[in-house]
Design goal:
By secondary structure, the protein is of the alpha/beta class. It is 41% helix and 15% strand. The structure holds pyridoxal-5'-phosphate.
Length: 392
């Protein structure tokens, strides 16, 4: 049986001529015309003033923190349920991380707990230097209350939208809810350039500064002069060419990923103990990954039973993120709440969700889940799903 991957790259055909153009023009070195054009096209599509093409989403987070002046001794609040890159970047600038639990409605940062924490920080007269809000698995956090409370205490937001390109909240694009927004073009993301990232902001001076810091902070002098520490964080022209091709099909990729989710929902519908990651009424999630939780008491088996059975069938499925406050490397950090993220970690699993996932392969995944739960579909019911999806 061929392996079914969690979220493999999906080239469209638009990338190849753009990549060849970069290659043939000898713009191999960092920067070049595709980088400039990608930045313009990206900013336009997402609806933001400026975008800066970088080597990764992690470097974008690092630069955002640097530009907000975060330094040793400062505290930065972030979501506990996230990938380690979010917390790592805060460590790079020497700040202390403080974690907020997830809310059940979005699995993202709980606005109520954030408000409580900021109130407590204000009482102590030590507000955090920034709040890094994560948009998990393709869905924006609940930004109305989050923005309202951050504005009340004048604490800037960095939006880690690495997993949520193409998502919206109240019709507004992910990546545009903070002073800075961050995206990733890592290999498993909804569109990929094999690697790469994007930093978004509305202010031109911040974009100019980000480009300066990302190119070794070279002073405008006729020789190599540096008055500040810089970084080698820019995107190469080759990767920018691939990213431009991928950007053209973003909407289609969102449609495919949402169709995966809808199909999983239809085919797993009614299985006791299975629940899907909720979608907030104000949100349009991309369903970058379709995530389910498995309540062992009603399902009769655990999330890990499913994961192991998938592996035996050559299917890649992953537990949901292990919260940062449970990570051995981050055990010393403060956390407000934590039980919701812990339960999502205990019970959650991400199902194969690639935009190129075939109907037959998706049913292979469903068969495993149903077999573990002792509830196989009859052959007739199973067959009924194939033509319906093909016709859709
Ligand atoms: C939430 C989150 N933040 C940041 C990153 C880092 O992006 P990159 O891998 O491009 O550095 C990722 C994923 O890779 C992520 O999932």
């Amino acid at each position: 049986m061929d392996r079914i991957y969690l979220s493999p790259p999906h080239m469209s055909g638009f990338e190849r001529p753009l990549l060849l153009d970069a290659f043939d023009s000898n713009w191999i070195a960092p920067l070049g015309p595709h980088v400039d054009t990608l930045e313009k096209e990206f900013a336009e599509q997402v609806g933001v003033g400026h975008s800066v093409a970088l080597s990764s989403g992690t470097s974008a987070l690092h630069l955002a923190l640097l530009m907000l002046g975060v330094e040793p001794g400062d505290e930065v609040i972030t979501s506990t349920l996230t990938f380690a890159a979010t917390a790592n970047a805060i460590t790079y600038v020497g700040a202390t991380r403080m974690y907020i639990d997830s809310e059940r409605d979005t699995w993202n940062m709980d606005p109520q707990l954030l408000a409580e924490e900021l109130r407590a920080c204000a009482r102590r007269k030590k507000l955090p230097k920034a709040v890094v809000v994560v948009d998990l698995y393709g869905q924006c956090a609940d930004y109305n209350p989050i923005r309202e409370v951050c504005a009340r205490y004048d604490v800037p937001i960095i939006e880690d939208a690495a997993e949520a390109l193409g998502a919206t909240y109240d019709g507004q694009s992910a990546g545009t809810f903070g002073v800075f927004g961050v995206f990733s073009f890592n290999g498993n993301k909804i569109i990929t350039a094999s690697g790469g990232g994007m930093l978004l902001c509305d202010r031109e001076d911040l974009a100019v500064r980000a480009r300066f810091l990302a190119t070794q902070a070279r002073d405008p002098a006729p020789y190599y002069q540096h008055t500040q520490i810089g970084y080698n964080y820019r995107m190469s022209n080759l990767l920018a060419a691939v990213a431009r091709g991928q950007l053209q099909v973003l909407e289609d990729r969102v449609r495919c990923r949402r169709a995966n989710y809808e199909s999983y929902r239809d085919t797993l519908d009614g299985m006791p103990g299975i629940a899907f990651m909720p979608e907030h009424p104000r949100s349009r999630s991309t369903r970058w990954l379709t995530c389910i939780t498995v309540d062992p008491a009603s399902f009769g088996a655990t999330r890990d039973d499913i994961r192991v059975a998938m592996e035996a069938e050559n299917i890649e499925a992953r537990p949901t993120w292990k919260p940062m406050h449970m990570q051995p490397v981050f055990l010393d950090c403060r956390i407000r709440g934590g039980a919701v993220a812990e339960q999502i970690f205990d019970e959650g699993i991400c199902l194969p969700s690639g935009s190129s996932l075939a109907d037959e392969d998706r049913l292979r995944v469903v068969d495993v889940v149903r077999a573990v739960g002792g509830c196989l579909m009859t052959p007739d019911t199973r067959d009924a799903f194939l033509p319906r999806r093909k016709a859709a």
